[in-house]
Amino acid sequence: MAANLETNVYGSIQGRYNMQAPKSQRKEIFGLTFPLGSRKAGGFFSKSSGINMIKDAVEQLLLTERGERLMLPNYGCNLRRYLFQPLDQTTFSSIKREIQTSFRNYIVGATIQKIGVFPTGDSGPAGGNSLRVILTLKLDTADLEVFDVGVTIS
Fold first, then answer.
1. Stretch 95-120: mean pLDDT, rounded?
2. At 60, phi and psi to the nearest 5?
3. Are 49 and 41 within 8 A, CB to CB?
């Protein structure tokens, strides 16, 4: 009987019937729900998958400045540096390049279809400008679902 069982990353035992699942179910990727420490859905370290996981990961990536994460100094997008820049074609190209590079390095399971950057006209916490970044993404699974993720940089 031990020959038919395997141990997964978390130490639990799975039978061979789990490995015979359809291809779309075997490639499902799980991650932690963002933000950590939220008691609302499943405890502090609850997991998510699919669109919810991608949305959480993209929001976290866009709102993090490079150098903020100690063990991943290149993680994040330096989008706050564009707050007081004129929103012209050069600035938009720089923002797009910044997002695409970080997205390619740190997000798994989705591809960028469209990037939108809009000035909101609201003053941020420091009294400055703020930008609204909206990404249209497509899941890499067989579903090929398209969805939007938006964050406000202030």
1. 91
2. -65, -40
3. no
The Cα 140–Cα 123 span in angstroms is: 37
Separation CA 91–CA 141 (nearest Å): 33
What is the average pLDDT across 10-35?
Answer: 53
Q: How confident is the model at residue 79 (pLDDT cuts 50, 70, 90)?
A: very high
Structure tokens at 34: 């963002």
CA distance 133 to 120: 10
pTM recorded for the entire structure = 0.71
Q: Is residue 90's pLDDT more than 90?
A: yes
Beta carbons within 10 angstroms of residue 138's beta carbon? 15
Question: What is the CATH code for 2-153?
Answer: 3.10.450.40
Domain boundaries, the chain: 2-153
Taking alpha carbons only, the member of 90, 96, 79, 87 closest to residue 121 is 87
Helix, strand, coil percentages in the chain from 3-state DSSP, rounded to 5: 30, 25, 45
Q: Look at residues 45, 5, 2, 49 and name the one whose alpha carbon lies nearest to residue 26.
A: 49
pLDDT at 1: 43
